[in-house]
Structure formats: structure tokens, C-alpha cells
Amino acid sequence: MIKKNKYTNALIGETSPYLLQHAHNPVNWYPWSETTLEKARAENKLLLISIGYSACHWCHVMEKESFEDPEVAKIMNANFVCVKVDREERPDIDQVYMSAVQLMNQRGGWPLNCVALPNGKPFWGGTYFRKEDWKMQILGLSNIYKKDLNRAVEFAERLTVGIQQVENIGLNINPAIFTYEDLDSMVSSWSEKFDNVEGGVEGAPKFPMPNAYSFLLKYGHLANNTRILNHVKLTLDKMAFGGIYDQIGGGFARYSVDDFWKVPHFEKMLYDNGQMASLYSEAYLKFKNPLYKEIVFETLEFVERELMAENGAFYSALDADSEGEEGKFYVWNENELRLYIGDEFEIFKDYYNINKKGFWENGNYILLKKKNKKEISKKHNISVSALEEKIHMWKIILIHQRKKRTSPGLDDKSLTSWNGIMLKGYVDAYMAFANEKHLEIALKNANFIANTQMQEDGRLCHSYKDGHSTINAYLEDYAFLSTAFIRLYEATFNEIWLSKADQLVLYSLENFYDKNSGMFYFTSKLDPK
User: Fold this and answer.
1) 494-514 per-position pLDDT tens digit
2) Residue 56 in contact with residue 21, Cβ under 8 Å?
3) pTM, entire model
4) Where are the alpha helices (DSSP H) in 22-176?
5) What is the C-alpha to C-alpha distance for residues 462 and 471, in angstroms, rounded to an integer?
6) Contact 374, 384 (CB under 8 A)
7) Nearest to 240 by CA among 279, 211, 187, 285
8) Which of 36, 42, 26 is nearest to 76 (CA)?
């Protein structure tokens, strides 16, 4: 029986999974467009701009509490033109309103909610609000606009100037002189915040920051700085052992909510896993730690299994939630583990910490490691190779059992920039381990992008879904894809990839470069200002 939806709004015609999640809200949502902005101007209504992404846990919470509530929707529809934005599709719009919220509140995040004048200039914003607080805020803002218009306009103008000042960077006319002393000074200051017990930066939450650790790895190697290299190795080891890494299915979650990598915010993003594949591949070349090879192979197996389409495109993300509960797909209770693992449970329990260390909440455990294979094998009087066989079988068993669960929501749009990051991850893995399958997948993805997202003149599309390429690409698309194509040339010596990278850079110089500042705009000259 087909479910009939009581409400349907203008988002029903969009391709973004995030926007489609809101297509049956009682709120009269519109997508960001010139038509929507013209509607606000014509009706002289405030814009209520709500920005998020499909894997965002608190976006789902606010939708359930407020945007699915007819009473709240009535207030929103009567007083605002309501606009939903997928920050992954429109990072340009997200950046403007994120800057506004950060200027107002000194912090930001998602869901990102802004109220703006009909011309788009913001004068109020915040992140997640509980239902009653949200109603009070938006009613108050509507009253200010109706009764004290000058106050709203004055604040919006001041805030707009602030955003422009944040974004505007002048031409640096100083000579470009860089020395190792500059790097040493920067890293020395940075290292004061290192957590040299658990890895990463001190405090919580903990983000993997793969780009930062790739830099530190190269710096430590070239400067022969043992202290920095030890910190990098500690961090990589701790992340690989922690709950932030999916010990059964491979792949990394976005971040851990604590300061020792235990409890992840369970969303899995393509761009994180692409960068982590590159980082652990580079680290293997330096440290030759077999754990790092294991992490790379399992992460790429996860991507192939859950984030790759038949045509070679990579999907964007997996949700943190399933069946309305964060992490439900990934955690286990002791009874089901005893049932599935059987006679080997005591070794399993020790290896994956089905104890106080691994306990999370509601009787559930997050699988994580504290001891390496040698320590476990010695304690249980078995060989390392025998333990590895057991671990392999445990993973097969538990992946099979997880398949019976309701999977987290999949954001199945393919973003060119993120595909470029993942493509480079596959090539970096091939360069480190010479596994032909990694190169085959890299070439399949590269051909998909070149044949589908890239036009003859070098112009790119940002997003692809269901056979449709949409949205004129941003600077990030050209940057990440040209980098990946150059890396693919280094792996294959096929000059077609070098030629395509050259084409992308030439197009960027023509359409993004600002001669006055010597820098590049995020959006092309073909896009609205």
C-alpha cells in the first residue's frame, strides 16, 4: 500500500536527498533560487533560511520537533518565505550565512538557521533550537520586522559589512620568502596543544584532521623531528584502535564526542574516508606498520560496499541514525555477541573490550581495541596467525548480521569535489600497496567524472544524481579533481590525466581568478554575485 503524504512542498522536484527529506513537511519550503528570492521581495516577507545536510543528527532532531509540527509550520508559513539549503550542494550559500552566525554568536554549526531581509541580508541566526524556543524566536523576529523595520535593516546592513570584511582579502605585496624556521616556529606553537596521551589535539570533541596530520607526517620526515613523528604515529594508532573507526565494517566516522576516540558521532562522510585512506597510505610508507595497511584496505572495502555506484561514482554519506536512533546500526549488546561469536566469545570480548572500556549506553557496546594482536594472542595462548583467522571470521559474521538491520540513510548524490578526494585516496593506496583493484576503481571513477561531470571546455558540474549533472562547480571541485588527476598521471603515466588537470586549471584561471587580490573566488564569474 502506497503511503499518502498529507503535505508536499516545492522541494519535491529537487534531487538532493536532504531537501527531499523535507519535501513532505507542513512547512512550505522552497529551494534556494532567484525565483524564491523574487517571491520574498514581491511579498515583502522575511526569508527564513535553514541549512543542513542529510547525515546531520541534530538536523533530523529539529525537523522532527519543529518542521514536522503543523503548529510551528503555520507560524513559519504565515511570516516567512522558508528556504531549505543542502550545504553540500550549495557551500557558497552556507558560507555566507555561517559567517553571519559566527559573527553574531562566535560559534556555528548545523542545522544553521538564519532570518534575512527579503534581499537576502541576514540579521539574526543560530543553530539548533528546541520547539518552544524556536516559536518564540521566530515570532519575535516577525514582530520586529513589522513594527521596527529600521532596526532590522540597520543590523542587517552592519552584519553584511562584517561578512564582507571577513571574506575580503587584499593583495599581499610582500615578497614570498619562506624558511624552515617559519615552519619550525609554526609547528612548535601548534605542538603545545597536542594530546600526547590519546593523540590528536587536547580536549573534546576529537576530529581526525587528516590534512593536518599529512602535513605533520611530511614535516616530521623532512625535518627528522622524532617528537612530531611519534605524535603522528600515536594519533594514527589511537584512531585505528578507537570507536571512531568501524572495527567490523571499516571506515571512519566524522569525529568522536569524547577526548579518547571512543564514542563516534556515527555519520560516515566520503571526504573523511578519502583523506584517511591517503593519510594511512602515506603513513605506511614511513612507518611500515601493517595496521595501517589493514586500515586502508578495510576503509576502501567499506567505500566499495556502501558508497560506490555501478558507474564508478562515489556517494556522499551515511547517516548517523537508523530507525531514529543514533548509532543503532553499529553497536552491539553482549547477549547477541555471545550468540553470534559462540565459543570464541571470551577472546572476542578481550580483543574488542566488551567491558567497562567499551560500554556505551542502554546495554550497548562500541567495539574498540586497547591491546594489539601479539598481546591478545599471548594472553590466550594462540598464535598471531590463528588470532587473525578468528578476527577475519568474526568480521564476516558480524557484517552478515548487520545486513539484517535497518541501514542508516544513504545520501546518494555524487559531488565532484568529494569524488576527487576519494579518487586520490584510491590512487595513494595503489602507490603504497600496488593493489591493482585500487587502480581499477580509481580509473573507473576518473572516467565517470571525465565523461559525465566535465564539459569540453573544462567546465565542471558540482553534483550528480539519477543521471542528472547539476549546479555549476565551485573552486573546490577544480582544486580537488585536478589534484587527483595529477596523482593518477603519476600512477599510470597516461598523459590524458595530466592534460585534463591542465584543462581544469586553465579554466579556473579564466573563471575564478581575481587579478586585484591575486586570489581565487569560490564561485565562478558565470554565477550570481
Assistant:
1) 999 999 999 999 999 999 999
2) no
3) 0.92
4) 34-43, 57-62, 70-79, 91-105, 131-147, 149-167
5) 5
6) yes
7) 279
8) 26
